[in-house]
Design brief:
The structure holds two protein chains of two kinds. By secondary structure, chain A is an alpha/beta fold. Chain A has 15 helices and nine strands. The two termini of chain A are 21 Å apart. Chains A and B meet through helix 3, helix 4, strand 2, helix 5 and strand 5 of A and helix 1, helix 4 and helix 5 of B.
């Protein structure tokens, strides 16, 4: 499905602009979202085996900007990188929110969940003298959440920690939930990191309309509905058989290793960092939104398909 | 025996860190730092295409991926025996320098400031420690407004990273042999316009606010000294031979300056959850064999040492070693006539402190941000910045760079055109390291000793010391 302005509006309804497409020209995004919501919904944001890159990417959200998201749209009850609290004060808060808002709060997971050594490759904190692993927290908080948003390729598919030989037994949220009989619905928003619009758009959609329609990998079709290649501004070169042999040469980037053919994402249109640039313009797509891309698409800088 | 205080997790940092301190008579008498995450990058890198390393290692840290990219491409340059052309070197400086501009701002406002400034009375700004907030209401409100404004500067700064990096965080624009973009005049103009706003914020908001907070918390220039040994690999090469750097390469040990000898870097694991047989190795021979739960160990971080001695890395280390002239804000703060040059070392012992680290970081941010403009002028529009070379059958090398938070080094060995060995020493391997085989504390552990803790329920100064390192 090609995402045009028209069907984007259709899918997103009245909150289209809240999905971060600032170029849609709909004013008063924040006000529209605020109006649609009764009170700021609570969010717990857990970080496991990751790099904080998803959070750093979220901070780059343009419309709405991150200040509006934090102060006026959601109520971020727990997020290790931004919260004022630390230690037991922070851990108490997380467990209390999960209790008080059981079935009502949203859980965001960033990073994968190591399972070897009873999860002791990633410890997220301590409470009443008990060491809490990412595995413990994902299960204990996850089962109480209204829905879980797996942000980034690690939480969605395992990501780099799960790449061969997966030394820590790292797994994605869906696998942990399945193994532990947790029925909380999961939406995967992969990307290494994900575009801020993908995260903010998914949050906005979930808050106003319920969980978005997804593909076989639980990715919102809205953002991951078609390949980079099929929409690529350099597709004409591919069709003409003109391939770049070096960076900066005119031509399709396939022979430099570009994975756009197998990669379902809208970077070609959305672009990054307030539309300053995107990976393929000066280099290649490495396929970072695809399951197991670190193994299946390696070597990154060699042609592997097409 | 004193009172034990456990802070787990230490928030507003990158990664998973636990700190345990023992407090007696209102002061910290012992400290233990625990890195609580192991992913196994070095194991995952084995047998892969060497070029993939500059992508994979960026995922070590999503706050400083560009720095790992920088160390990794320099590592590959040395193993592939290639030197980037001028545009490649300059573009690499600009891409990494852009990260310095927003990352130091992010650290001060969004990671550190909430230990000094009372945020709004809503999550994620509550709950928080009670007590030692010293700004008057009006000044505090100004600082809160700056926190919000700095979020915009952070996003704008990332636009600078992305201009030739492709995107941020995690860049595509740095590869072995140089940088992929061919800059044009339009991009250069676009960069200049954005950089102007970022530099303006650094010069007129960030820098003065750091000195203002420093004035309100003057005692914190005497807290958190640490080991007083510093190491810098040098960063931002100023010529194509890559021997001279904007922020200099060097070591400062027990009060004396020395040139850096990479062979003197070793990692020790007696107190880390790794096999003891791998201790005491230079990373060129290093191994990563995790042993969670190993007796006597308490961290996934190895203890990186230079000549067997703990060294602090980061802005204070770089600024102390480089000793550049500081901004006029420094003159005003120190009450020194503005016609005189004030250098980093003029701060004396005050530099070795919580506030000394914040001042060094802000001054460095200003210094690098100003240099970005000069590097723009060195770019040749329309010219390629990369030399493409095939993967060698075998080879080895290392690459050194500096992340905003400190020294980052990568080491590689290539066999059969695949990675046979890859080792990384990240900044936090230096600063947040546990004890080494001789029992010497790591720099953060050492900096915590003597820290005043008047109220053990609200150990403000403990977290201030930790965050001053930007772990």
């Amino acid at each position: 499905m090609k995402i045009t302005r028209r069907n984007f509006l259709k899918v997103c309804g009245g909150t289209a602009a809240a999905c971060g497409l600032s170029n849609l020209g709909i004013p008063n995004v924040v006000q529209a979202l605020e109006k649609a919501l009764a009170g700021n919904p609570p969010v717990i944001w857990l970080q496991g085996s990751g790099c904080t890159g998803c959070s750093v990417s979220l901070l780059n959200s343009v419309e709405p900007d991150i200040a509006a998201i934090l102060l006026r749209i959601i109520s971020l009850k727990f997020h290790s990188t931004v919260m004022a609290a630390q230690g037991e004060l922070a851990m108490d808060k997380m467990y209390k929110v999960a209790e008080d808002y059981a079935g009502k709060f949203y859980l965001v997971v960033e990073g994968s969940i190591p399972t070897r050594e009873r999860g002791r490759f990633c410890m997220v904190g301590e409470r009443q003298g008990r060491e809490i692993t990412m595995l413990d927290a994902t299960i204990e908080i996850g089962k109480k959440a209204a829905a879980t948003l797996a942000f980034g390729t690690c939480a969605s598919f395992g990501g780099i920690p799960a790449a061969k030989p997966n030394p820590t037994g790292a797994k994605p949220v869906t696998a942990i939930f399945k193994e532990n009989g947790i029925k909380t619905p999961v939406v995967n928003v992969p990307g290494c990191p994900p575009h801020p619009d993908w995260m903010v758009g998914t949050i906005a959609y979930a808050l106003t309309k319920g969980l978005p329609p997804v593909d076989e990998y639980k990715r919102p079709l809205l953002f991951f509905g078609s390949t980079i290649h099929d929409n690529c501004p350099y597709l004409k070169y591919y069709q003409e058989g003109k391939f770049a042999g070096s960076y900066g040469e005119e031509g399709c980037r396939l022979k430099l290793g570009c994975k756009g053919m197998e990669t379902y994402a809208d970077c070609w249109q959305r672009q990054w960092n307030n539309k300053v640039n995107w990976c393929v313009r000066n280099a290649i797509c490495i396929g970072c939104v695809q399951p197991n891309f670190w193994d299946e698409m390696a070597p990154l800088y060699e042609q592997t398909t097409g | 025996m004193g009172k034990k205080i456990v802070i787990d997790p230490v928030t507003r940092i990158e990664g998973h860190l636990k700190i345990e301190v023992e407090v007696k008579d209102g002061k910290v008498i012992d400290a233990h730092s625990t890195g609580a995450l192991f992913r196994g990058f070095e194991i995952i890198l084995k047998d892969r295409d060497p070029r993939d390393a500059s992508q994979i290692t960026q995922r070590i840290c999503g706050v400083c991926p560009t720095s790992h990219a920088s160390a990794s491409v320099r590592t590959l340059d040395s193993a592939f025996k290639v030197k980037p052309p001028k545009n490649g070197r300059v573009l690499r400086n600009i891409i990494l320098g852009s990260d310095y501009a927003w990352d130091h701002v992010l650290h001060f406002y969004h990671l550190a400031a909430l230990d000094y400034v009372k945020g709004p009375g809503t999550e994620p700004f509550v709950p928080r420690y009670d007590g030692d907030y010293r700004l008057d209401e009006k000044t505090n409100q100004v600082a809160v407004n700056q926190y919000l404004e700095a979020l915009k500067i952070k996003a704008l700064g990332h636009e600078l990273t992305a201009m030739w990096g492709g995107k941020g965080p995690i860049v595509q624009g740095m590869v072995v042999g140089g940088a992929t973009a061919i800059p044009n005049r339009e991009e250069i103009a676009g960069y200049k316009e954005r950089a102007g706003k970022v530099v303006d914020f650094i010069a007129n908001t960030y820098l003065p606010t750091v000195y203002l907070i420093g004035g309100a918390y003057k005692d914190l220039f005497n807290v958190g000294a640490g080991c007083k040994n510093f190491l810098s690999y040098g960063v931002f090469p100023l010529d194509d031979r890559e021997n001279a750097f904007l922020l200099k390469r060097g070591v400062y040990t027990n009060g004396k300056d020395y040139p850096l000898d990479v062979k003197k870097i070793k990692e020790f694991v007696s107190h880390s959850w790794y096999d003891d047989r791998t201790t005491g190795k230079n990373p060129a021979q290093g191994e990563t064999v995790p042993l969670p739960g190993k007796k006597g160990a308490y961290s996934y971080i190895k203890a990186a040492r230079y000549k067997g001695i703990p060294h602090e890395v980061g802005p204070l280390a770089r600024m102390w070693i480089t000793n550049p002239v500081l901004s006029k804000q420094a003159n005003r703060f120190l009450g020194i006539d503005e016609t005189r040059d004030v250098r980093m070392r003029d701060l004396g012992e005050k530099a070795f402190s919580i506030m000394g680290r914040h001042v060094a970081r802000a001054e460095e941010c200003y210094l690098v941000a100003k240099a970005l403009g000069q590097w723009l002028d060195e770019l040749t529009p329309g010219e390629s910045g990369v030399i493409m070379k095939p993967v060698p059958k075998s080879g080895q090398g290392f690459g050194l760079s500096e992340a905003p938070r400190g020294s980052v080094g990568h080491w590689i060995k290539i066999d059969n055109s695949k990675i046979a060995k890859y080792q990384v020493i990240a900044p936090t391997t230096w600063n947040a390291s546990p004890r080494d085989d001789k029992g010497q504390r790591g720099p953060i552990e050492e900096a915590l000793i003597g820290t005043p803790v008047p109220d053990p329920e609200n150990p403000f100064n403990v977290v201030r010391v930790i965050r001053s390192f930007d772990p």
